[in-house]
Amino acid sequence: MILLGSFTYLASHKEIIEIDPCELNETYEIYLAKDETYYVGDEEAESEDEGVASIADGYIKGMDNGNTNIKVGCDTYIVNVSDLYTAEYINMEKEYLPEGIYSIEENRYLDTVLEYLIDKAGYQTRAGAVEAIRFLTLRFKYKLNYFYENGRLSSDTYVVDGEGRYYHKGLYLSNYKENEISGVRSTSKPWGYTIYELDTGENSQNGLDCSGFISWALYNAGFYCGDIGAGPSEGVLDLTDLGEMVYLSKLDINEIKCGDLVGMDGHIGMIIGLDDKNIYIGEAYWVNDLQVRIYNYEEFLKESEWSYVILMDEYYKEDGSYTAFWN
Q1: Are β-strands 75-82 and 27-33 bridged in parallel, bridged antiparallel, or unpaired?
Q2: What is the per-residue pLDDT across 42-87, written as a single tens digit (0 to 9) for each?
Q3: How far apart are CA 325 and CA 79, in angstroms?
Q4: Would you kindly state where each structural domain of the chain is located, as residue ranges?
Q5: Using CA atoms, how far apart are residues 274 and 108, in angstroms rounded to an integer?
Q6: Topology, domain 27-82
């Protein structure tokens, strides 16, 4: 048998049988924010509904809420577009998350997008953990309040959950998720709802504290570290124990990667971006709440309040589809 392009020549029968070149076509499902693009290549392409998603020069672009099919060569892309989240960028002017703004369906859609992006980056990899942090700091349209945790576990089985800490997949945006919460010190409500904050003795919007934010991201990326604090705490497991702690005075800046943790006494964040000049850190902090802080390298090493970096190669094991900066 001799293969000739899209034809098979059967020498024994001296006949040519045409084979459909698209017989082995693939179908892919992707999720895009409005104005976000996705590269699929320069093959001939056509969108069923260009009002939802268009394609030009090999890039699919999200245009408006909805879904459509785009044929690219022999392959089909099922494209879902939504304005519930954005492309990855830093927005210093985000509004705080309003109470009860998301429906159950919207909460589930955002959970699906988060899972899709983490899987695309690599579940149980460094890139997956970074993608989780980038989602809440860069893609999510609102800012979460810093909420002092309402306690810490008092035994191996008891976890204070949903009040500054949330040990579940997805985002805590709708009341239907309240049945996930097993241990509370106050009355747990979704992010953005006002509940009593034991540490301050006042009512405050529920959100995440610093270690709650990092442990939420790790859990969603496939790493469960437990109900542990920022540290360092001698004799007690905390987030500083997950990797190799290197003080900034001894740090080789070329050693660090996105996904490494950064800390000071009682506070923790994660590096989410590195470029030629700057380091970008995602954190939940009582000053300015959920945010991205930007330092040039000299500022970070010599002038910032950060004390050390936790190098996380041994914890993650795999890098996944790692990027030092977002697109």
Answers
A1: parallel
A2: 889 999 999 999 999 999 999 999 999 999 999 999 999 999 999 9
A3: 24
A4: 27-82
A5: 31
A6: Immunoglobulin-like (2.60.40)
Mind listing the pLDDT tens digit for each residue in 103-158?
A: 999 999 999 999 999 999 999 999 999 999 999 999 999 999 999 998 875 555 56
Burial of 31 (0-12, 13-18, 19+ CB in 10 A): buried
Q: Reduced to 3 states, what is the DSSP secondary structure of residue 223?
A: coil
Say how far apart CA 229 and CA 239 lie, in whole Å: 6
Tell me how many degrees the CA angle 204-209-212 measures, rounded to the nearest 5.
130
Instruction: Give the residue carrying structure tokens 């945010």.
Output: 291
Contact criterion met (CB below 8 Å) for 168 and 180:
yes
CA 280 to CA 133: how far, in whole Å?
11
Note if the bond before 21 is cis, omega within 30 degrees: no
What tokens appear for 99 in the block? 């109470």
Structure tokens at 33: 């924010």
Starting from the edge strand earliest in sequence, which strands make up the sheet with 59-62, in order? 37-39, 59-62, 53-56
Q: What is the largest CA-CA distance in the chain?
A: 88
- The model carries a pTM of 0.91
Ramachandran angles phi, psi of 84, nearest 5°: -70, -15
Examine residue 232 and say whether the peptide bond preceding it is cis (omega within 30 degrees of 0): yes
Residue type, 189: K
Side-chain half-sphere CA neighbours of 321 within 13 A: 10
Q: Which ranges of the chain does DSSP label H, i.e. alpha helix? A: 104-121, 126-134, 210-220, 297-298, 313-316
